[in-house]
Amino acid sequence: MNxxxxxxxxxxxxxxxxxxxxxxxxxxIALGVTxxxxxxWTMNKxxxxxxxxxAEFPNKDxxxxxxxxxxxxxxxWIIGTAKNVGKRTARSVEVQANxxxxxxxxxxxxxxxxxxxxxxxxxxxxxxxxxxxxxPAEHDSFKLEVVSGY
Length: 150
Prior knowledge:
Largest sheet: 3 strands, antiparallel
Low-confidence stretches: none
CATH topology of the largest domain: Immunoglobulin-like
Strand content: 35-45%
Strand order of the largest sheet: 1-2-5
Mean pLDDT: 85
Structural class: alpha+beta
Helix content: 25-40%
């Protein structure tokens, strides 16, 4: 009971399945290549935008004032005000304190100012230097600087 039509139906079915399989593989390769190119383009664009944001924010736009060192019960901290004198909103501003003894660098501490500082606005900051059980190195002066922000 071997009919010539039975073999043709199976052969046609296998061809259709094989054609669909090859079409699926080709489509998958094309989509994969498109995805990789899109991801590289997006990552490069994101890196460039972040570099522009950080490079464009000049640290001189943040002016530190009313700075003083305070000591109480073995703890030391430096407080002050950071004012944005620029034209752009500042975010993630980091202030660093370098401690010196007879003009020689001996220690360093920093703090981040949370939130944003709009143009013309000010925010207070407080840099903890060591802790009660571990005070900062002996020092006779300090210098503050804004080390980052965007």
